[in-house]
Known about the structure:
It contains no helices and 5 strands. It has a 5-stranded mixed beta sheet, with no helix packed on it. The protein is 0% helix and 46% strand. It has strands at residues 5-11, 17-23, 30-38, 42-47, 67-70.
Amino acid sequence: QDSNTVQLIGRTTLDQIVVFDGPVYLEGSIVRVRVGSAHAMTAFGVLEPSDNFRNLGEIGNISQGPARLEI
């Protein structure tokens, strides 16, 4: 984790909390995150590296691959 990477927290369109590491400039953006694990109230994932800012009309949820998050 470099100095430009921080822990970000977002919510899916179904209002589920997702925690992941990413660059600070993503704050306020909508991004795609692949969820790797989940607990009762929180999911943990990684930022999808490719086309994060394309196809934002495709809404996923944590049970269907990448989640669209508002940070």
